[in-house]
Amino acid sequence: MTPPLDPSEVNAMLDTHWPSAPCRCVELSPTHALALVVPAESALRPGGFISGPTQFGVADAALWFLVAGATGVPQPMALTSDLSIRFLRPARGTKLQARADLERAGRRLVVGTVRVWVDEDQERPCATAQGTYALPD
To answer: pLDDT by residue (tens digit) across 103-129?
Structure first.
């Protein structure tokens, strides 16, 4: 049995394959992943609202991290197959977090559900998403 990955291993993968990525993995297990991004000023809309593309990006990153947790190895070539997001309320805060929970991991696909929130208010999500990642051959 492969030991579980540590978030630092996933962040090392990011540093190697996508050094400009704004998201970081802060928690990881075989069934969930937690991503964090501190939005740049350019990611804010008038009024200080965090943009939809930034929220979509952190949801996608959380799923990518979940793929590594579910398979037990970093998967830099795993690709988003499908991702659907629903924005529930305006996102206003200093940091954006997303938790991806595993729905199913198969030989070719990993499916997860994501909750996105600002700051520490996990009970009031600003978006929810569901997506599928395709694993490389």
So the answer is: 999 999 999 999 999 998 899 999 999
Phi, psi of 59 (to 5 degrees): -65, -45
How far apart CA 17 and CA 28 sit, in angstroms, is 19
Tokens 């979940």: give the residue: 66
Distance of CA 129 to the CA centre of its chain: 10
Q: What is the largest CA-CA distance in the chain?
A: 50
Measured between its terminal Cα atoms, the distance across the chain in Å is 21
Query: What one-character DSSP code corresponds to residue 48?
Result: T
Strand partners for 92: 49
Using a 10 angstrom Cβ sphere, with 0-12 exposed, 13-18 middle and 19 or more buried, the burial of residue 136 is: exposed
**CB of 66 within 8 A of CB of 119?**
no
